[in-house]
Amino acid sequence: MPHDIFIPTPNDATNLVVDYAAYALTHAFLSVDASGNPPPIHLPRQYQIWQDTLTQAKDLPIKLKDASNGAEQWRKCVREMPALSVTKLLDDLPNLLRARHVLIFLMHFYVHSLPASQNEPVIIPKSLAVPVLVVSQALDMPPVLTYADTTYYNYVLAAAAQGGKKEAMRVLDTFTEQGRCTMRAMQTIISILADSTPESAKRLAGALHDLASQIATMGKILDSVHEGCAPSVFYGDIRHWFVGCKGESDEGGRWIFEVGAEESKRNKLLDQNRWLRRGQSGEEGLWEAKEMAGGTAAQSSIVQALDAFLGIEKLTHEHGDDTNAEGGYRGNRVSEKGNFLTRMRDYMPLVHRRFIEALGTMATGLREAAGRDGSEGARAAYNEAVRALRDFRSVHVRVATLYIVNQQRKEGREAVVEGTGGTKLVPFLKGVRDRTGQGTLGQI
Ligand code: HEM
């Protein structure tokens, strides 16, 4: 079957993202579109094979490093699937997002179910390689599973499982509700900053106090994670599927996208794709992935939005570089400046990245306004918000210790503990937590 691959230009990609922003803002990812219909939960019929293959993987179920006949057969079917053209999806944003979701899950099922091999790279077959690369490129996302793939777009699956009822779609909606309350608190503060009246300092104090309590609630929600997920399940069953690829390192875990010679010639954007380089084997049409972090909540937009809003990014994002021996993660050096958290921006949906930057700019005057003479209430409330974020991160250190460090200890392993993002997690997380605390006014 000839591939009729649409090659998105940067302009096409930008337009798609603008549409996406409009879609997200208009519908707020709720269960209705402008005409009151649910968003698409099935891909157009010609892509049914992807959905069916994903369903098979889940039904079998395919396991980690699975050498069973069923899994071998499933992987063979994946290799033999046609490399479908994604042209029809590229001007249809909801379906494009849906396609990325299905394809990325298929790819991680494929990669991580392969039985361990001695330092051999994983070849991602053409049937997945081509649509994964084109769809990801159109959305300006790396060709690897990200936090967004496991959360923001996952509500669609929950709805599908339960017959597409509006209430079923509320699962993620409830999850993001806290994020939305926190966003609203930030929005109120921005409007107060823009309006300087004698009353402003008092109102600012009240709004900052509200923000602090929203962050505290986020900490409580995080603390309750053990009610929904047992540490042994997360450690033993879930996190391995999220792992990314090691790139040029010699530790194994390399991925090669089998694009084919013809498609490589046609798709000029492959050479500019920052996540790929030409395969070193000399064989035409093979593209090797650089190091890509696995899906990690370090890609969560709301927490990074808070750092930017409170004006403490210099502390959280620019110091404690974890690329050194202490930190562990080598990282795909897509950003010149900044530490692991800065690099995680590149794994967020493009509109979220842009939004966080804009939010930081809009809140530029916050620290100054809160620190002004005569604004003691606002200063105390600002510090309360910063401390709430530090406390959120303390809860998070406990969660990561319980879910990863303690589990590894139970196995009696002494190896360095790594998160799915690839950091040496304990020094990294404690460092970010401590530097957050240094962001209170009067200390920097
Ligand atoms: C089972 C639950 C969780 C575990 C085991 C866990 C573990 C980790 C680890 C190991 C990292 C370091 C980066 C990496 O290598 O992946 C990390 C980073 C991070 N995680 Fe989690 N995490 C969990 C849940 C959450 C949740 C629910 C959130 C809420 C948004 C969250 C927010 C973050 C943030 C914001 C970072 C970046 C570091 C920071 O900004 O302080 N995590 N997590």
Topology (elements, then pairings):
Blueprint (H helix, E strand, L loop, with lengths): L9 H18 L20 H12 L9 H12 L12 H21 L8 E3 L1 H13 L8 H4 L4 H7 L4 H29 L5 H24 L1 H4 L2 H12 L12 E4 L2 H6 L9 E3 L7 E4 L11 H10 L2 H5 L22 H5 L5 H13 L3 H6 L4 H35 L14 H13 L7
Parallel strand pairs: 1-2
Antiparallel strand pairs: 2-4, 3-4
Helix pairs in contact: 2-4, 4-5, 7-8, 8-9, 9-18, 11-18, 13-16, 18-19
The protein binds protoporphyrin IX containing FE (HEM).
The site of protoporphyrin IX containing FE has 24 residues, from α18 and α19.
Order of helices and strands: HHHHEHHHHHHHEHEEHHHHHHH
CA-atom Rg in angstroms:
23 Å
Number of domains: 2
Shape: globular
Assign the CATH architecture of the largest domain.
Answer: Up-down Bundle
Mean pLDDT: 80
Main sheet: strands, sense, barrel: 4 strands, mixed
The ligands found in this model are: protoporphyrin IX containing FE
CATH topology descriptor of the largest domain: Methane Monooxygenase Hydroxylase, Chain G, domain 1
DSSP E strands, number: 4
- Would you identify the regions where 5 or more consecutive residues have pLDDT less than 50? 1-39, 156-176, 323-336
What is the CATH class name of the largest domain?
A: Mainly Alpha
- What helical percentage do the residues reach? 55-70%
Number of helices: 19
Strand content: under 5%
The strand order across the widest sheet is 1-2-4-3
How far from one another are the termini?
62 Å
Determine the structural class based on helices, strands and strand pairing.
mainly alpha
Protein name: Indoleamine 2,3-dioxygenase
Family: Belongs to the indoleamine 2,3-dioxygenase family.
GO molecular function: heme binding; indoleamine 2,3-dioxygenase activity; metal ion binding
GO biological process, one term: L-tryptophan catabolic process to kynurenine
